[in-house]
Amino acid sequence: LVIIDERGRKRVIEGGYTGSIGKCHREKLLELLKISDVVVVSPLAIDIEEGVLLNVDGDEAAASIARCIEARGAIFVTDVPGVIIDGNVVREIRESDKEILGKIGAGMNRKVMAALKYVGESGGKAYICDGTSGDVFEKALNGECTVITKG
Question: What predicted TM-score, i.e. pTM, was given to this entire model?
Fold first, then answer.
C-alpha cells in the first residue's frame, strides 16, 4: 500500500495478509510449460501455518518463478514503455546502477528491485516492457523497453 504521511510524502507500507515466496514447485511449472507457451500465475500464496491466502507482489512472484525454472530472461509487464526518468525511457540499467532507484517512483521502483534481484541471483536479463499493446516478447527482444543486466 502507498500512503501519504503527515508531511505529504508517499510511503510504502505492508498491507496485511501479504507474503513472499518461500518455495517453488519447479517440476509442476515445467510440466505446464510443456503444454503451453505461456503460463499465467496469480500472485497468491498460502500461509501454511495459518492456512490463509496471502497476496504476493506480482513482480516478486514473477522473479521467483523465473529463477525457479532457470529462465534466461524475465519480462516484467507494465503500462508504460519502460523505466522513465525525467520524461525519458531508460534503455538499460545495470546491477551497479542502484543509485537510480532514488529517481524512480514507488510503483516502478518495486518492479526494478524485483528485476535487479532476479538478475543478481540468476545472471539472466530482465526486461520492463509495455504490455498494453503489441507483442511484449518482440519488444523485449528488440530492446523497445528497459533492459536490466548484470554489471
Answer: 0.81
